[in-house]
Structures are given as structure tokens and as C-alpha cells.
Design brief:
Blueprint: E1 2-5, E2 8-11, H1 22-26, E3 29-37, E4 40-41, H2 44-57, H3 66-79, E5 85-92, E6 109-115, H4 122-127, E7 129-133, H5 141-144, H6 154-165, E8 171-174, E9 180-183, E10 187-192, E11 195-197, H7 209-221, E12 225-226, H8 232-236, E13 240-245, E14 249-256, E15 259-260, H9 268-283, E16 286-287
Parallel strand pairs: 7-8, 7-14, 11-12
Antiparallel strand pairs: 1-2, 1-6, 3-4, 3-5, 4-16, 5-6, 8-9, 10-11, 10-13, 13-14, 14-15
The chain binds 3-[O-phosphonopyridoxyl]--amino-benzoic acid (PXG).
3-[O-phosphonopyridoxyl]--amino-benzoic acid binds next to helix 7 and strand 13.
Length: about 290
């Protein structure tokens, strides 16, 4: 595998960064997780836009333009002959001193890894997922804004550990007010009385690109979408429930905190959205090979 670091493609074993990089020392940096389907990068512009949003939010100047970063991402796929896979884009604050002052970091580093993707087993999509709510609450906007996709993912990792300890793969995280925010690496939606509901970004949800895509698909299907604050009880009493994310795509949820959601099987609207999403991933995105 060839890994892009600061303008060069390096062999996997030579793809290394300094122990003085503040991305490592302090989680001072940002990232994106992107999919390639059938030789095309899905929603590339949206991912690069979100990366620049995260960068601006932490006063990190990415040493490349949007267009250059898009080209480098596509090039990383081409160099690795990756038609279907997962692309991790990382921008770190760069090499600094042991003190946390970012002003000592003169040059941010840009890393692009284009790799195979590990997806959930097909059976899980057919049957639906069992998840739990965890005690770790989502970061406050005033502490570390959840809209920033930063390298500091401990909030999510602690929640993920709690999910794993409970024997499940994903966890619903509440915000400090007790409203539903999102999962550790996925946004969430419920269906109630034919309408789609998802927590607002202000509740502590990431501006998910899959979330946005699902909202566009719902509009095309004539399914109304709104973004009210939701409680756990809205999830318990939902007709349908599903998660969205680049890696997971759309996963039905059939049980939360031991309670069966809806019929206990993936719902009709969820399945319709899955079908539409699949037709989108087959054709859309920036071409890589042609
Ligand atoms: N919320 C959080 C906290 C996330 O990290 C999403 C929602 C979904 O967003 P997208 O834009 O992907 O629809 C994410 C996704 C992985 C992985 O390996 C994915 C994410 C983070 C870490 C790992 O699948 N982000």
C-alpha cells in the first residue's frame, strides 16, 4: 500500500510521522473518513468541505487548496488501485515541542490512507442491530464542539467501550441535557407515523454526510424530515430506527436498551432508503479511473 504524506506517496512501512507531531501528542488535528465505490469517491467535495470546516474551527491552516486535496485523494485511490474502499484523510498540527502551544508547530501534515473497508456482516443489515444508550455524554459545544471532526475522539471511544462492554457494536450518546445526540461513529434517525426524525446538529450531532444524503433521499421519496430534540423514549417508541455513516451506510436498529423497536424487524421506510442509497453509491461521485 502507498500512503500519501505531505506530497509524497510512501510505502506502508516508511509511512511514519514524528513522535513530536501534535496530532499524536495532543490529538491536535482533524480527519475525514470517505468511501470509494466502483472506482469513484463518494461525496468527495462534501468531505473536503467538512475537513476545511473542522480546520477553520481549530485555526489550522491546511497547506493545500480544496482542489489539490481532492486531486491527492483521487490519486491515493489510483496509486493503490482501489475501486471499493475506505479513505482516511488526516491533517495534524505538525511537529512541535512537548508543550501544547500550537504556535510551535510550523507545518501541518497531510496524510491520506486508501485502504480496504471492513463492513458489518450482511446478516446484521438483514436482521437489524441491537444497541444501547451509554452513560458517557456527548461533548459540550462550549468544551469541544461535536461538529469538529477532530483527532480527539476519546469522548466517542469511551462510549464505544461502554457499548462493547454491553456486548453491542454501537451506542447512543445523549447530550448534557439528556437529549439524544448521535452514536459513536454514526448519526441516527427514527421513523414515527411515516415521518423521519433526526436530532438537530445543536444537540451534539456531527454534520454527517450520509445523514445529509438520507435527508435528500427522503425528500425525493416524499417522506417529511424534521430535526426536533429527541429523548430515549422517542427511540423506544419509534416505528423504525436506523443509523447512518460513511462506513455503516444505513443500518436498521431493532433493539435499544433491551427494548424492541417497532416490529423488531427492519422497517419499510428504512429498507426503501437503503435501496435508494445503494443506487446512489453505484453511480455518483468523482470519477477516479475515467
Ligand atoms: N457521527 C460521528 C461522531 C462520526 O464520527 C458520523 C456521525 C457519520 O458521518 P458521515 O459523514 O460518515 O455520514 C461519524 C462518522 C469509520 C469511522 O471508520 C467513521 C467516523 C469516525 C470514525 C471512524 O467508519 N465518522
Amino acid at each position: 500500500m502507498k500512503v500519501y504524506i505531505d506530497g509524497k506517496f510512501l510505502n506502508e512501512r516508511d509511512a511514519k510521522i514524528s513522535v513530536f507531531d501534535h496530532g499524536l501528542l495532543y490529538g491536535d488535528g482533524i480527519f475525514e473518513g470517505i468511501r470509494a465505490y466502483n472506482g469513484r469517491v463518494f461525496r468527495l467535495k462534501e468531505h473536503i468541505d467538512r475537513l476545511f470546516y473542522s480546520a477553520k474551527a481549530i485555526l489550522l491552516k491546511i497547506p493545500m487548496s480544496h482542489a489539490e486535496l481532492m486531486r491527492a485523494t483521487v490519486e491515493a485511490c489510483r496509486k493503490n488501485e482501489l475501486r471499493d474502499g475506505y479513505i482516511r484523510l488526516v491533517v495534524t498540527r505538525g511537529v512541535g515541542t512537548l508543550g501544547l502551544n500550537p504556535n510551535h508547530c510550523k507545518k501541518p501534515s497531510v496524510i491520506i490512507i486508501a485502504d480496504k473497508i471492513q463492513v458489518y456482516p450482511a446478516e446484521l443489515y438483514a436482521r437489524g442491530m441491537d444497541i444501547v444508550t451509554v452513560p458517557t455524554v456527548r461533548n459540550l459545544h462550549s468544551a469541544l464542539n461535536p461538529a469538529i471532526k477532530s483527532l480527539n475522539y476519546l469522548n466517542n471511544i469511551l462510549a464505544k467501550i461502554e457499548a462493547n462492554n454491553a456486548g453491542v457494536e454501537e451506542a447512543v450518546m445523549l447530550n448534557a441535557e439528556g437529549f439524544v445526540a448521535e452514536c459513536t461513529a454514526d448519526n441516527l434517525f427514527i421513523v414515527k407515523d411515516g415521518k423521519l426524525l433526526t436530532p438537530p446538529l445543536s444537540a451534539g450531532a456531527l454534520y454527517g454526510i450520509t445523514r445529509q444524503t438520507v435527508m435528500e433521499l427522503a425528500a425525493q421519496l416524499g417522506v417529511p424530515v424534521s430535526e426536533p430534540n429527541l429523548t430515549r423514549y422517542d427511540l423506544f417508541n419509534a416505528d423504525e430506527f436506523f443509523l447512518t455513516g460513511t462506513g455503516a451506510e444505513i443500518v436498521p436498529v431493532v433493539k435499544i436498551d433491551g427494548r424492541v423497536v417497532g416490529t423488531g424487524r427492519p422497517g419499510k421506510i428504512t429498507k426503501r432508503l437503503v435501496t435508494e442509497y445503494h443506487s446512489l453509491t453505484k453511480v455518483s461521485g468523482e470519477p477516479i479511473y475515467e
